[in-house]
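Predict both folds.
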Amino acid sequence: MENGEARAAEGSSSARDLLTITDAAALVGKTPSNISYLLQYNRLRKYDSQGRVVQRAPNGGLRVSRQELLSYVEAWNARVRSRMEELRIPDSPIAFSDVPERERTKHVHRLHPYLGKFIPQLVGYFLSRNFGPGQTVVDPFAGSGTTLVEARERGIDSVGVEISEFNVMIARVKLASYDLVRMEKEVLDISRRTADYSSKEFPGTAWERIGRPAKGAGYLETWFAPRSLAEMLHFRDLIPEYEYQDLLKVLLSRTARSCRLVHHYDLATPKRPVTGPYACYKHRGRTCSPVTTVVPRLRFYSADTVRRIKEFDMVRKSAWSLVVEGDSRTAKLEGALVRRPMDGVFTSPPYVGQIDYHEQHRYAYELFGIERRDRLEIGPRSSGKGGRAQYDYAKGIAEALRNISEWLSPRSPVFVVANDRLGLYPGIFDEAGLHLERRFERPVEDRTERDKRPYSETVFLARAA
């Protein structure tokens, strides 16, 4: 028992009530990974094939209680319903509370984490009802490209404008066309070469001792264990040998985000490096340790990246997409593709004082030496939510919408997704020369690891003059 054998705990379950992880996922419309997550973080109890509660089970022998799983899902749904009542939001098709996780993060939408993006189902709902093949939709705050990807899936042409060079890279990687055989070969090859390098350079377990960063250490040396950093730099140095270099950079960045010296329940907004064991929030007090090697996660993300690109390749339609790197307040959209008035906007601008969009991916900017343009962000968290910040925010959003609306056909729909608790958007639309026509209200699921507060957002429909 002390050497990894299954240890029986109090309680048992009928064999007829037991499900494999695969069957449990199918029952509630989730993925096996979702069920494994619930088990790993003690949301569900683990059973062996005999119905005994265990800490571990032999390969293939782990089981889930059907009744406990259904009770957990019902409790979750009740929580969503309670949140909607608290926010005074009626149930509606745009709540998407019943959409399984695997659909919320389908294909390339999860090639890289990105704070503040809206779920693709919301975008798809409005695109499919307001635009069609041969038309062009514009997103002046393109972020990681959600609107553009959903447009491509429907055969709708699209243009995105984005100030962050790294965000532009993510969006272009999602939208790119690949030789799938070559893409898979490159992704798996560079992952294997990095693992081989790691095993040769770091034999034994001495590397697991992290220690505190030296005084004056740079960002990468401070936030990554020595072995992790060496592996990442080796991967980065190999990238020029391959064709799909931006894809490999996005893969490395995704891996780096998960391998920082942080509490693994706080990947979104860590405050300081963690250099030793800690009581884990997700594991309900169990002692965990920070990541000290990127290899296991790199292997997982490599396979996941290949799978997601292949999945998107099967559903993407014939359409063109253009990602413009620039300030949406002043960007000019002239180009070989953009030759006619465009047909509408679907966008989700930054929220007032909510996110520092460059800082959230600092590890990527440091790894690749990418230029930062923080000073051009609209409504950054660093500016707060005071009166001056609100004024600057409203002015910036209005300038962007006014600039983009010059490229639209008359009466084109302008959809803006925003949490407008401060009541700024009616004035923003007036300043931009747009007529506010309608509002759609919807609840929002948890957006960060530990933020469980009720949350809502509005989908505004305005019209160009």
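Second protein follows, with its predicted structure tokens after the sequence.
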Amino acid sequence: MIETAHRIGWDESHSMFRDAVRRFFARHLEPNMARFDAEGSTDRSFWLAAGEAGLLCPQVPEVYGGLRLDFRFNAIVAEELGYCGSPIAINVHSDIVPDYLIHYGTDEQKQAYLPKMVSGACVSAIVMTEPNGGSDLARLRTSARFDGTHYIVNGAKTFISNGQNAHLLATAVRTVDAGAKGISLLFIDADLKRVARGRNLDKIGQWSADTSEIFFDDVRVPADRLLGAPGEGFTMMMRQLPQERLSIAIGAQAAAQRAHDEAVRYTRERKAFGRPVLNFQNTRFTLAETATKLQVGWAHLDWTLRKLVAGELSAAGASAAKLWHTETQWQIMDACLQLFGGHGYMNEYMIARLWRDARVLRIYGGTSEITKEVIGRCL
């Protein structure tokens, strides 16, 4: 369990919310994780139950069905989800997509989507990455041609989290051939004609997180589904990137904590040469190092959350958080798995799930190399 007694910046309302989140995951998530893995997706009923429990999009204003809470409540969901060892992309739906609507959407757009996102009736996805584009969003090719009443969208996207479940696709498109200045954001209903979901991608890890290809073939999207003005998409994405990257860092820290806790429990119980593995100096030293990294990580995470809530978290600061927490997560995961010996490589053990799911966090949301570049440009 994540220790919260001595963390800074939290109060009783956060503790009550965290308890509710833990109870929900214990009832609706943990008993179903193996089945979700086997099916490669998560039941729609899970999303509806999460909405009913108040776990989705807590920052949405009351007028649109939300609770108007600050991002620390989103962070609680992300922490507890990460500690459960689940890769379900609640953060995409709750931490990323709704803020585009809150900050840049019209009232009509907010009314159309936010209440259903809060309830879980509408699952959302952020649709940016393209097969030949990777992290270089300025080169995206998916086009949106304006014909007076609609945008005609053509192109292909890949690595889309929630791609199989999503009803709403917040899609980066090119409206003008002008590099980054030609990118716009369209909110596309997934059930529109000529929107096609590709295969549910076969990944190394994160099996229960449906990750898909999305194809657009002359899709007619009403012009009033454009977010902001044409050409403003790239600027919007850069403004929202700090919160997205911090959300990933939060999940990484919590999953690393679970790996450490699993290793402590296992080495206390497992015996070698007639004594618990924890009694060996190498084991104690390894776990002392992971415990120290976690202590530093939680302090840094709370500091970063305070900066975000105060509106003071820069792109470089968020990139540094993602870089440090995901790289540190991988170090902790690998060290802890080693302590399990051969059992650590068996999928029946939680440490195996945590290890295989961790690898991609150094890639998505901006690779470690990209985050270093962002930080370096600000020096």
